[in-house]
Amino acid sequence: MIQNQEEVLPLVEASQEKTISIVQLIMDGGTGGQIIMGILFVLLVVAVYIYIERFLAIKAANKVDKNFMNQIREQISAGNIEAAKMLCTKVDLPVANLVQKGISRIGKPLEDINTAIENAGKLEIYKLEKNVSVLATISGAAPMIGFLGTVIGMIVSIHEIANAGGQIDIKMLSDGLYTAMTTTVGGLIVGIISYIAYNHLVVRTDKVIYHMEATSVEFLDLLNEPV
């Protein structure tokens, strides 16, 4: 029994020696790998920040009271145009901003009102999509930067082989191989996260745009109702 334990202990110690952390892998990758991983880390931080900031902004923009248009209808039907404007100002959401723009044009031809609402809608969409395109850029650039690290790592390995003088040792190639593998994995991880975050924000933005369009149509129909 004691002999078995003595045989097992070296195996356990060997397995523990082979265990290596992610940080150690990055550090063993050499200067080139560390620079590439540093760039990828910065891109990841930027992507996460943009996603959280835009997610909260889009979520807030989609919180519209279901009775909002009913209140607007009551105020306009009663001729309280200023009260309707104040209601839109109080709500201060993209949908309310469109309605407020339309209310400010009441008395002009319906086509002019529609054009004003469309122009205001373009501005609101631009605000909602602010910096979202950066996520798309990161999702495409991060894997490419990772592959750049792969090429750098392979160049380092080939350089070591050329200078080995016929005596190739795997330890000579370790820096280049670490750089090649860690940067590739890092670039793909950052790219995947950014890609998913981008598409999620696009879906949520489309929902807000749909509500804006539906509200605009409802407001125009309100103006067409007989007095």
From TrEMBL:
Q: Which residues cross the membrane?
A: 35-52, 132-156, 176-198
Task: Read off the InterPro entries from this record.
Answer: ExbB/TolQ_transport, MotA_ExbB_proton_chnl
Keyword Transmembrane helix assigned: yes
Query: Could you tell me the superkingdom of the organism this chain comes from?
Result: Bacteria
Question: MotA/TolQ/ExbB proton channel domain: which residues?
Answer: 94-213
Keywords of the record, alphabetical order, are: Cell membrane, Membrane, Protein transport, Transmembrane, Transmembrane helix, Transport
**Localisation per UniProt entry:** Cell membrane; Membrane
Q: Name one Pfam family in it.
A: MotA_ExbB
Which residues does UniProt assign to the signal peptide? none
Membrane topology reported for the UniProt record: Multi-pass membrane protein
Instruction: Tell me which family the UniProt entry assigns to this protein.
Output: Belongs to the exbB/tolQ family.
What name goes with this protein?
MotA/TolQ/ExbB proton channel family protein
This protein's species is Wenyingzhuangia gilva
